[in-house]
Amino acid sequence: MARDHEPDLVAGSGELRVVSANRFEFTLIGEPENPAYVFEQMRRQKADRYDGLSRFRLVLEDNDGTEYAGGWTVPSFRTGDGAWTFEGETESFMGGGRSELTPKGSTEVRFLIPTKHHAAHLLADFVTTPRDRLPPEPRFRPRGDGPDRHLQV
Q1: CA dist., res. 29 & res. 86, Å (int)
Q2: What is the DSSP string of the chain?
């Protein structure tokens, strides 16, 4: 957890909890290598609480070593004998972890469309996720020779 291109504040173990489709909560327990640096960064973030660039990037790693981007966060923390506890919220969770700068760049956009919206009916042909109390999964089948393709959302 740190700002872009800055040393991590802390690394440790913890959990990410799904609260809703766009809200996650985390708990991270670890021992900072440099407690004075952590205090300074947390002080700076608190002083600039309305500056989006003052947030910290949360990077998660599973047991297999796969990294995930946990979005931007403003954590709270408690010190302890050795281990510290960091807690907070984030609005995103996706693959990719620490992204490197690329000449092309990229953007990921996620739209939460209400089921009664007309766009939901148009996009339903592309969704293959199992759905409670709805008709069987639709499939998108391109014309021409070749294997069937589908998009899972």
Answers
A1: 6
A2: -BSTTS--S--EEEEEEEEETTEEEEEEEE--S-HHHHHHHHHHHHHTTT-GGGSEEEEEE-TT--EEEEEEE--EEE--SS-EEEEEEES--EETSSPPP-SS----------TTSHHHHHHGGG--S--TTSPSPP----SSSS-------
Model confidence pLDDT, tens digit, residues 27-47: 999 999 999 999 999 999 889
Angle at 114 (CA atoms; ends 136, 71), nearest 5 degrees: 105
The pTM of this model reads 0.61
Residue 72 burial (CB count, 10 A): 18
Note whether 9 and 41 are within 8 A (CB).
yes
Assigned token pair, 20: 């809703």
pLDDT in tens, 47-83: 988 888 788 888 888 888 888 888 888 899 999 888 9
